[in-house]
Specification:
The chain has helices at residues 4-10, 13-31, 37-58, 63-84. It is mainly alpha-helical and 100 residues long. The model has no long low-confidence stretch (mean pLDDT 90).
Length: 100
């Protein structure tokens, strides 16, 4: 059994810690900042998918389990960018817009 930081990465738990921090961030944005849940999910989903792919790679899962979340992160990111490009009146919160 590997201990310390090396064990944290070898077991994939480093990715679990990152996902937990992202979950706390999502809660904070909704509960404390008043963001709409959909907006928070759209913002954090692409990054969470990358972390899921990282976890799969760290624990030596077969390549499709690494590739699938990576592939799903692109449409999630593009949907978030498209949502941010909408006029401000149609956005449910005031988040930074993507420059054209």
């Amino acid at each position: 059994m590997i201990g310390g930081v090396a064990g944290l990465f070898a077991s994939g738990h480093a990715a679990d810690v990152i996902l937990a921090v992202m979950a706390v961030e999502a809660w904070w944005l909704v509960a404390r900042r008043g963001w709409v849940v959909f907006d928070v999910l759209a913002l954090l989903l692409p990054g969470a998918l990358f972390v899921v792919a990282l976890r799969a790679a760290l624990i030596h899962m077969d390549w499709p389990w690494v590739a699938l979340p990576l592939a799903l992160s692109l449409p999630a990111h593009l949907a978030d960018v498209a949502r941010r490009r909408q006029p401000p009146a149609r956005q449910s919160i005031n988040i930074p817009a993507v420059e054209a």
